[in-house]
Amino acid sequence: MEGEASKTKTVCVTGAGGFVGSWLVRRLLSTGEYTVHGTVRDLGDRRTGHLKALDGAGERLRLFKADVLDYAGVAYAVSGCGGVFHVASPVPADKPQNPEVEVLAPAVRGTQNVLKACHQAKVGRVVVVSSAAAVAMNPGFPRDAVLDEDAWSDEDHCRTTGMWYALSKTLAEREALAYAEKTGLDVVTVCPPLVLGPLLQRVANTSSLVLVNLLKGDRDTVEDKARNAVDVRDLADALVLAYETPEASGRYICGAYRKKLSEMVDIVKSFYPDLTRPMKFVEGEEERMMSSKKLQALGWKLRAVEECLRDSVESYKAAGLLPE
Ligand SMILES: NC(=O)c1ccc[n+]([C@@H]2O[C@H](COP(=O)([O-])OP(=O)(O)OC[C@H]3O[C@@H](n4cnc5c(N)ncnc54)[C@H](OP(=O)(O)O)[C@@H]3O)[C@@H](O)[C@H]2O)c1
């Protein structure tokens, strides 16, 4: 019995050194209850120093070097775990040269490897980080629809328009849910939109650079789209909630707020009046509206947009990404 209990409290996080992975590891360690196996591709200090410095890491964090394309490496990290959070997946900043190799294979084959390893290791639940990009990229949806968990991005549309990231997340999430159906493995997926919030890791990730570059004034004119977003700390809470709530099942959209880029800049200006350059906003295509009611029904709480943006900017300044 003791063995079973300790297995439930040992969990694996793939992609532990990334933006979302790092906050999830911190959240799990902070409970004092979990031992965490974290997979990283590079054990060097630049990618893992921030993880080793977390409270509780010395006693309860074990790092494993594993590419998700390497089944044996993944299986080794997952063995002995009661739960697995599959976070690792490429989030390209630029258009990939070879989408199949750079994006689709790690997302889809990586997910297959993680799920197979979990099934073999008799893992109790797998929480897969998918994306709003797997929900909303579908020209068939009416513009004013509020999307829920029944909505799926259209794979052909993603392929023909070169939305490789959206395609990778759609294929990987479908694969995860189909694998669960086929094998009985307990899989829950969580679909966040743009993730913002303070950085823990040293290497800035793609979604944080969206806000950094906007505030740096990298473009003369900015398409003033409404964007759905969530704070990385609230996403980490949602992932743990999806793991710990026995009745959680299927997909969960995890969006906290929806703001036009000009509104986000105005909020930042209210805290840091000197930070932003003058920008010209032009009307842009809106992102789809989506509902996180299913996640909120599990008890998910989220912070205000002001707190998210203020803490994001504070951390970008501290990291030297924005001027002090
Ligand atoms: N940030 C967002 O706005 C957002 C929105 C929706 C969903 N998501 C999802 O959230 C997850 C984490 O993204 P993030 O924002 O935290 O980006 P990130 O900081 O770039 O993290 C991505 C992670 O995936 C790992 N990875 C990529 N390819 C891998 C491979 N072949 N083998 C092993 N690990 C691999 C990276 O490892 P290395 O550190 O070794 O590169 C990194 O740890 C992804 O699944 C992403 O699709 C993010």
TrEMBL record:
Keyword field: Oxidoreductase
Domain NAD-dependent epimerase/dehydratase: 11-249
Molecular function terms from GO: oxidoreductase activity, acting on the CH-OH group of donors, NAD or NADP as acceptor
Pfam families associated with the record: Epimerase
Domain of life: Eukaryota
Name this protein carries in UniProt: NAD-dependent epimerase/dehydratase domain-containing protein
Species the sequence originates in: Triticum urartu (Red wild einkorn)
Gene expressing this chain: LOC125522799
